[in-house]
Design brief:
Elements (H helix, E strand, L loop, with lengths): L14 H17 L8 E3 L14 H15 L8 H26 L3 E3 H9 L1 H11 L5 E3 L5 E3 L8 H17 L5 E3 L2 H20 L4 E9 L7 E11 L5 E9 L8 H22 L5 H7 L10 H9 L7 H12 L5 E10 L11 E5 L3 H15 L26 H17 L1
Parallel strand pairs: 1-5, 2-7, 8-9
Antiparallel strand pairs: 3-4, 6-7, 7-8, 9-10
Length: about 425
Amino acid sequence: MAVAGDDDFGSLDDSAILQAYEDYEQSQDEEMGGGGSVATTSSDGKAEDASGSGINMKSGIKIIIQHEEQGTGSSNNVKTGEQSTLANWIYEENNTIITESVRGVRSKYINTSDLQMQEWCEQQMIYNIGAKMGMIPQLITDEGAVVPVKEIQLTTPAMKAGTEVHKKKDLEVNSYVNVAVSTHGDSFALKLLNTIQHIKHLVMGASCIREVTIFSMPFDYGFMMMGIVDELRMNEHEELELVEVKTRSNRFKPLSKAQVRTHNLQAMVYKQIIDDLTTGVVDGNLVLEKMRLDPKHVLDEKVLEHARALDVAGRTLGDIMTTMLDQFRFLPRVSSMVVEYYPSDKDKAYKELLSSRRVDFDEAWLKKRLETHFGFWRGEREVSGVDIEELWKCNMCQFVDACHWRKRKNDECVKKMNQKK
């Protein structure tokens, strides 16, 4: 029986925000199809090691609420011009706090799902992660008031449909057993054990393995990336093939260039991570350091039971990490990548393949995209929205009315027009 655990991350200064972020991490794991063949539950929801990010997000939100009350008062207390200036200041401050808070919690490692959202629209990614941490973006009304965006859907119907398809395909080859754990070290060890069993199955002739946790620091850019691959299988030439599963609400509409680009990026990142693992360049201790986990952590007896069932020796988290990395050396590098598309509009959609396409690995393009995205996480540039050619994406975004990127671009256009007068 394979095992898996909840996502792990470092502690922040504020435990309430940390808990909100843990809820976000868990929701991300569920949206990506779960963590493996045995679901686990964490009993304490606290990280083992606290290093702090230096960002007090809770106090930031409190400040915004106080200013909002002042800025939305009657005109008897605040003149119209002053109210408009204050409203804009509050709006800008709110966006800054959300952006810096999200950047802070991703200072150590980035989920591949975040990178995919970033490729689609970086500003939307910030708002999505912020909302799942309880930080709701604000908008300025026509009257000059600052109010939170209402009716935020943390999980959209499209996301639910995609999760359901992934879950059904996962259950075709995996089964789940609940394992209660009390620390993040134990939870992550279960994920590693799950991956060990997956690899053993594939090496021993299984047709495919699904929902496989992987991680590395691609191209030594300084960021550890973690994701869950939908499927790995050996093709007819005994070569390793990577499969990504996507759902479509409109089975007849062609894929947009933006969709193709986003899906290609995710597949290429996964290939690079797996190739790093199979060639032995991943440093297990560095991975645990990035996640603020102790390799000397002695695992709970319930976790060790699963380890012994897999003939995995050792008692510490570092021992399990070493075994998992050794197992990947039995696999070849990824030779091909495929994206498969399934409908999301009926119960048995996961069995009806609409189409599939191959992805060619382009290392130069991948490095360029990663450098661009990592530039934001390093704080080297401000958050960016969509290009003008892809403004159609905004019609599907629930943050469109509060979007800082759109407002800034609109203000720039108004300023240029006024200068021409």
